[in-house]
């Protein structure tokens, strides 16, 4: 292949990488679900992930009230949650919403049955399939402890020893000649 | 005289003792052919840059060991997956094993990418090593697949959103992306199928290709260093000596990963919910995310396809025997631009706020 062809290939590749035309993304992020339960679950997830985005959360709750399928959701509790959210009580709103769909430790008398029992229709699997999340309670982010207790100190000491021994062995087993040295020898 | 005889017997016994390990090794070698590993390699192969492949293998070994341990406690069903990872905190060395698995995966990705760049920089993909280079590129793709499936297995919001993007891209591919859609097995969670890919299919393929890679290295020999003149008196040494130095480097690598794993255990995000997009992908995929922000979902496909097309075409487009980087300006410029583009896109995506695409 000639130099001109290679240069053309380089230019084409760079152009395609940086300005490749593609279909525009649908970036509104709205989920027009007609299931109140799915919308309430989304609202809970937004409280956990983006608590400042109250507009999005309230929108989900409004859609839940207008949803075609409202079975399995206590809408009175959803309304209470909206009021709590309006007052800035995110934790209270989250608990009310979880209770409204019968999820987690917040189930109280009079609310719908737990999600996992309410899920599948007769003849359908009662567990998550395909890309279903299987989420019934939105858990907070979990950060494992990195506290320096006895076990972690032991692991740090072992790791540091591995670094020292490895570095020492790498030095002992180093090549006798360097690339620069070999070039110098060949030159002379 | 008796004393002299005794001394002779002692000395004979000593020789016998000294010979015993050698005889044992010879017996083992006769049956297992270990001596075949003592084929000669040039001494420059013992430098750090030429040991990156071996270090990638070391991080893969760490991933296999920690992965086997984690598999005893991970529950790959959507209802329990996220929780089962949280419960590792109650398992002996559970948090450390997951942390080491996570950081070894990051290390493997970085090391395999650096190894690939080293091969490109020194022209080690040239005849007769084109086939082995393509085996290496395939393994690079498999490492990315392992990173992706591992991200999904966490089954948090980040992993789930990565999965949904992948499903959408698979649908763009039509029949080629069939396996990644839910149509393959409608009554099975895709999480379970990705788990099988993560623990069996992907590492299994990596091991098969690794064996082929190693056999081809032995067949063709480690490539000469383009900066060392042919007239230079470079020594060679047995491949086992190279393994010894890589082993020393690996000890440093594992130690460093151990320190990082203790100090910076990875978080696990909230349990996932469908219908929202609030996260960004892990850093190795951020450059694709930047493309998606600008050009939409199909650009993930185009960008990745272009990158691998360039990698695959390289040995066929650059066929001249010159291996010095100075004599290959076109390849060097393209490689530099691609690396710069990937870094810039990654940085841009890292500093932007998450956007909804789907």
Q: Assign an overall shape of chain A.
A: elongated
Mean pLDDT of chain A: 78
User: Which topology of one domain in chain B does CATH recognise?
Assistant: Cytochrome Bc1 Complex, Chain C
What is the CATH architecture descriptor of one domain in chain B? Up-down Bundle
How is this structure best summarized?
The complex is a heterodimer of chains A (188) and B (358). By secondary structure, chain A is an all-alpha fold. Chain A has eight helices and no strands.
Please explain how this structure is put together.
The complex is a heterodimer of chains A (188) and B (358). Chain A has helices at 3-19, 36-49, 54-66, 75-86, 90-100, 115-118, 150-172, 179-187. By secondary structure, chain A is an all-alpha fold. Among the domains of chain A are: 36-118, no CATH class; 150-182. In chain A, helix 2 (36-49) packs antiparallel against helix 5, helix 3 (54-66) packs antiparallel against helix 4 and helix 4 (75-86) runs antiparallel to helix 5 (90-100). With 358 residues, chain B is an all-alpha fold. Chain B has a domain at 38-275: Up-down Bundle (Cytochrome Bc1 Complex, Chain C). Chain B has helices at residues 2-32, 52-71, 81-86, 94-121, 130-153, 157-172, 190-220, 239-263, 286-295, 298-317, 329-351, and strands at residues 40-42, 236-238. Chain B has a two-stranded antiparallel ribbon with strand order 1-2. The N and C termini of chain B lie far apart (96 Å). The mean pLDDT of chain B is 93. The chains are: A mainly alpha (188), B mainly alpha (358). The interface between A and B is large, with 83 and 101 residues.
Salient structural properties:
heterodimer; A: 188 residues; mainly alpha; 8 helices; 55% helix; 0% strand; elongated; B: 358 residues; Cytochrome Bc1 Complex, Chain C; 11 helices; 2 strands
């Amino acid at each position: 292949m000639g130099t001109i062809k290679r240069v053309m290939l380089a230019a084409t590749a760079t152009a395609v990488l940086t300005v490749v035309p593609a279909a525009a993304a649908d970036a509104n992020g709205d989920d027009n679900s007609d299931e109140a339960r799915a919308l309430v679950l989304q609202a809970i997830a937004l409280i956990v992930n983006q608590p400042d985005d109250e507009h999005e959360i309230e929108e989900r709750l409004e859609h839940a009230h207008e949803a075609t399928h409202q079975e399995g959701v206590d809408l009175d509790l959803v309304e209470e949650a909206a009021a709590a959210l309006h007052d800035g009580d995110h934790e209270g709103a989250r608990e009310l919403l979880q209770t409204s769909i019968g999820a987690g430790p917040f189930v109280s008398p009079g609310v719908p049955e737990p999600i996992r029992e309410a899920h599948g229709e007769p003849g359908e699997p009662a567990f998550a399939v395909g890309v279903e999340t299987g989420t019934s309670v939105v858990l907070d982010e979990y950060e494992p402890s990195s506290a320096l207790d006895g076990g972690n100190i032991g692991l740090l000491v072992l790791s540091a020893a591995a670094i020292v021994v490895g570095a020492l062995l790498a030095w002992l087993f180093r090549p006798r000649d360097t690339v620069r040295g070999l070039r110098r020898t060949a030159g002379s | 005289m008796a004393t002299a005889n005794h001394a002779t017997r002692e000395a004979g016994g000593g020789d016998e003792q000294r010979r015993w390990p050698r005889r044992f090794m010879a017996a083992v070698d006769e049956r297992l052919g270990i001596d075949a590993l003592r084929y000669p390699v040039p001494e420059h192969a013992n430098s750090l840059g030429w040991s990156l492949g071996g270090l990638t293998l070391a991080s893969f070994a760490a991933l296999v060991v920690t992965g086997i341990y984690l598999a005893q406690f991970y529950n790959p069903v959507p209802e329990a997956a996220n929780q089962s990872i949280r419960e590792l905190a109650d398992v002996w060395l559970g948090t450390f094993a997951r942390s080491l698995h996570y950081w070894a995966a990051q290390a493997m990705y970085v090391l395999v990418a650096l190894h690939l760049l080293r091969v490109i920089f020194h022209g080690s993909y040239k005849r007769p090593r084109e086939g082995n280079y393509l085996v290496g590129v395939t393994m690079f793709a498999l490492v990315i697949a392992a990173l992706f499936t591992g991200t999904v297995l966490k089954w948090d919001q980040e992993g789930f959103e990565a999965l949904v993007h992948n499903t959408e891209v698979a649908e763009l591919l039509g029949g080629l992306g069939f396996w990644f859609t839910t149509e393959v097995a409608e009554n099975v969670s895709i999480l379970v199928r990705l788990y099988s890919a993560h623990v069996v299919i992907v590492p299994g393929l990596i091991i098969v290709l690794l064996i082929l890679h190693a056999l081809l290295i032995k067949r063709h020999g480690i490539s000469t260093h383009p900066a060392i003149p042919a007239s230079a008196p470079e020594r060679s040494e047995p491949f086992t000596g190279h393994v010894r130095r890589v082993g020393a480097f690996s000890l440093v690598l594992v130690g460093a990963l151990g320190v990082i794993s203790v100090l910076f255990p990875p978080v696990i995000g909230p349990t996932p919910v469908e219908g929202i997009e609030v996260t960004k992908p892990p850093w190795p995929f951020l450059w694709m995310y930047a493309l998606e922000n600008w050009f939409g979902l199909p650009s993930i496909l185009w960008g990745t396809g272009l990158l691998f097309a360039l990698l695959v075409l390289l040995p066929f487009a650059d066929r001249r025997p010159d291996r010095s980087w100075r004599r290959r300006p076109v390849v060097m410029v393209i490689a530099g631009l691609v690396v710069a583009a990937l870094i810039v896109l990654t940085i841009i995506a890292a500093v932007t706020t998450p956007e909804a695409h789907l």
